[in-house]
Amino acid sequence: xxxxxxxxxxxxxxxxxxxxxxxxxxxxxxxxxxxxxxxxxxxxxxxxxxxxxxxxxxxxxxxxxxxxxxxxxxxxxxxxxxxxxxxxxxxxxxxxxxxxxxxxxxxxxxxxxxxxxxxxxxxxxxxxxxxxxxxxxxxxxxxxxxxxxxxxxxxxxxxxxxxxxxxxxxxxxxxxxxxxxxxxxxxxxxxxxxxxxxxxxxxxxxxxxxxxxxxxxxxxxxxxxxxxxxxxxxxxxxxxxxxxxxxxxxxxxxxxxxxxxxxxxxxxxxxxxxxxxxxxxxxxxxxxxxxxxxxxxxxxxxxxxxxxxxxxxxxxxxxxxxxxxxxxxxxxxxxxxxxxxxxxxxxxxxxxxxxxxxxxxxxxxxx
Length: 367
Description:
It is a single chain. This protein has 367 residues and is mostly helical. The protein folds into two domains: 2-169, no CATH class; 183-355, no CATH class. 74% of the residues lie in helices and 2% in strands. It has helices spanning 2-10, 17-49, 52-55, 72-78, 80-91, 96-113, 117-135, 142-182, 184-200, 205-211, 216-236, 238-252, 258-263, 269-285, 305-320, 328-355; strands at 59-61, 68-70. The protein has a two-stranded antiparallel ribbon. α11 (216-236) runs antiparallel to α14.
């Protein structure tokens, strides 16, 4: 056992919830952002603004009925599997040969996993990366052994478990979406609060939303919850952090407050209560749907990705005929849910807590 532990330490293989549930999951979200999300944004911009080089087909694969053409954004979105796998390998500090071999592993796993592919990629890429790290530089023909073992293990496991994992994730996501349609008030609160809390915790709400394909009305509730946390913390802590804190939290991440939350959990009450209010406002009053890339549902106002996702969904729905047009009420609802209500309501909810001494001056100060 001691020799095995020494081997794992030498290979930098650490079996821990933090490495797999925080580091790998967070990196996966970055891979999603750099491929699927960016591709979706470019396609929408090209279509809406009539930008030729963004709408023209750059690559055509196949022929006849099986011919598929890809725009610049389409190519980026098509590479989501490899991007996620490589990002996960990077987070696990995989050596170069392992990292590069994760490209075909990610592509195969995402394709086999279907709608729930991202969750399958997370599981398979972690296993393939750790096995690849274990055999790396253990032989004199490392340039052959490491990529072959990583590829065989990764694609082999993907063939066994990618479809079941993808199906399970897709089914669970469909259940959440259906429940939100049937019970928009209750599920609006549940989804908004849970995804918003996940955004502030050191895990990736974006990756979770993508893995569960959290779109539609449930996606709108998720956007509301994430925005409530980010915008809420930004404005609630303005006295302590001024404009720098407003930008870093409002357009960056509310995760910056995690240290303060650990010291005084009560500071988390106002933005979480706000998310419980904006969630059903989004689902019941404005019927706000997020039909862009599911990763947007868990991004909040980080780079304005949440609102951009709602807009790309509108544009896609209009193009497909599912939506007649983008109305003024759509924009008003998005502005209120994503920015205005959290900016006003969260400080108001924090006021009695400050009066009672639950939140003291300096409790929200960022280092």
